[in-house]
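Reading is simple: each integer encodes one residue's backbone shape. An example follows:

___
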Amino acid sequence: MNVSAVQTIETAEDANQKAVHSDMISPRFYTTDFAAMDRINIEPVRAEWDRMMAEYEGDNNHDHFQRDAAFADEVATGMATLSPEMRQEFMDFLVSSLTSEFSGCVLYNEIRKNVNNPDIKKLMTYLARDESRHAGFINLSLRDFNLGIDLGNLKRTKKYTFFKPKYIYYATYLSEKIGYARYITIFRQLEKHPEKRFHPIFRWFELWCNDEFRHGESFALIMRANPQLLRGANKLWIRFFLLAVYATMYVRDHMRPMLHDAMGLDSSEYDYQVFRITTEITKQVFPLALDTDHPAFRRGLERLFAISQAMEKAKVRGGLMGKAQQGVCAVQAFLTFARLYCMPVIEQDLSPQVRMEPAW
């Protein structure tokens, strides 16, 4: 029997505690070396950069995040069909998504305030603007259930992780691109099966994820303008972040199986479809890809999820025996991750044209 790691969310206090909580699979807040960010040079991709800045300035999604007249009725109708367990998974999804979006907003805003480089300052202003809209839109849906997050308190109290700028580039690029792949896969599924759209927020996902896609393009241009980030020992870091992002997504999604089932999706097939889309997209910047369809890779992710379930049982058990079991699980997770990391990767040539279109 599976042990759910989804924290019960019944009150606004529960929702805020969930957002503030930090563990291996929860969205994190980041800070970085602002002086190093200030030294970024984007001149090798100046023409593409300027076109992208013009797109941001045009702000084609400026009026997208407005709830229409049908929103409240759809919420009432759709949520009435959900079991209490399924409702909990959906609330967990909303809080996790909001925390992830707001994490980007906080990071981008802090970089904006601490750099003088006009290219980076302008980019971070646009990114923070978009992520603020995304987080605010999700928060409105949480407030429908009296579960709104205090974003000011979240910024002050959530633990921050320091990442070197290059780690920010790899992780944020992947986060934005996989965010696109996740949202567009859900949108396409519910476009085909509107009867399974149990909440109206999913109607916004297409244009929403186009924002995510363009954010990723920004970091792709930064990395292609600084090719040393994609060579030598840095390829090992790229491999690490690819595996960390995919493994985290797999474990987190399998802790919410009813959410995908309600949308007519199988959690595993959904994840591997997202991985395939992300792999296609990352050809624009990463010189390698993970072989996510390899049977050994799939077995490794299944093993990580099983270990996470055992870890949750050990936490529930508590005491010395529970702590000992948690230690064993941590070692098992490390060894499993290490085996996955050492699997052969797919080498790939970078596309001559950096920019891509959200065509999925």
Remarks:
- The longest helix spans residues 84-114.
- The mean pLDDT is 92.
- The domain at 12-287 is CATH 1.10.620.20 (Ribonucleotide Reductase, subunit A).
